[in-house]
Design brief:
The longest helix is centred in the N-terminal third of the chain and has 21 residues. Helix 2 packs parallel to helix 7. Helix content is 39%, strand content 12%. It is of the alpha/beta class and 267 residues long. The structure holds zinc ion (ZN). The site of zinc ion (ZN) has 5 residues, from strand 3.
């Protein structure tokens, strides 16, 4: 126990030192030595690499919304959550955040979500399965959305969790190792999967347990489901939190240091 506390203190002191030192650096940085892009500060990590749920003893759950191709439904779901006082986590595909994919109102929407008590994660750049990717492409496609998100927001918003496309986390040992090793290299120590994927609210209500992670997409039928489901979940006493809250991961602060992808730093 004493060793753990010493490690915590040491990590905190190191992090504080790095953050203070970072304040004087140029506004644009890149590279994986930036401690606040990683999650190495978690000294005693209780979670498996692939996470399907949080603590089964606590009535807290996380609603997640993937892909985000249709921003009208992103907006509707976000506003629904805000109006009901619950939080959710969006996993947009990175290329939807690129300048040429943005539609009027999108920038304001993402800025509003980023500034709210909801959360944004990475769902890779092109929604390709990581299972057949080269080592470099795992790093590139998982991390690149950080660069486009920061560009949209105009500041650095640390993306702290990964939702793998199709929930694909490796069928063979080689694939599993490739995904894990390279997620680690870009600062991620987990994938966030789910244990509830049900758009019929009458069925979903029975699937949700303490710690559940619910998978939804930014679509009309998912919005309609959530409209019915969230009030019922509140009634049953569930608290709806972000993924980092569910997992007890410390939320990293935003900063001016916009992340840019420099290929040579990640080879
Ligand atoms: Zn997806």
């Amino acid at each position: 126990m004493r060793l753990n506390w010493m490690r915590r203190l040491l990590c905190a002191a190191l992090l504080l030192g790095l953050l203070t030192a970072g304040a004087a650096e140029p506004a644009t940085v890149s590279g994986m030595t930036e401690t606040n892009y990683g999650m190495d500060y978690i000294p005693d990590d209780p979670w498996p690499f692939n996470i399907t749920n949080g603590d089964r003893e606590v009535p807290r759950i996380a609603i997640t919304v993937d892909d985000c191709y249709d921003r009208n439904w992103v907006r509707e779901i976000f506003q629904l959550c805000q109006s009901l006082g619950v939080r959710c986590t969006f996993y947009p595909v990175g290329d939807q955040l690129k300048q040429d994919a943005l539609k009027p109102g999108d920038v304001e929407l993402w800025r509003e979500i980023a500034a709210s008590d909801c959360e944004i994660g990475t769902h890779t750049h092109h929604h390709l399965s990581m299972e057949s990717m080269t080592a470099y492409n795992v790093r590139l496609y998982v991390k690149y959305p950080q660069a486009v998100l920061d560009q949209v927001l105009g500041y650095h918003y640390p993306i702290q969790t990964v939702r793998p496309p199709f929930g694909a986390v490796g069928k063979t040992n080689a694939q599993v190792q490739n995904i894990r090793t390279n997620l680690n290299k870009v600062g991620y120590h987990h994938t966030v999967l789910w244990d509830v994927s049900q758009t019929n609210p009458d069925l979903a209500i029975d699937d949700v347990r303490n710690g559940s992670i619910l998978l939804y997409h930014a679509r009309h039928k998912d919005f309609v489901c959530l409209q019915q489901l969230i009030p019922q979940l509140l009634e049953k006493g569930f608290e709806m939190v972000t993924v980092t809250e569910l997992l007890g991961i410390e939320k990293l602060p935003v900063s001016e240091n916009i992340f840019t992808w420099n290929a040579k730093d990640w080879e």
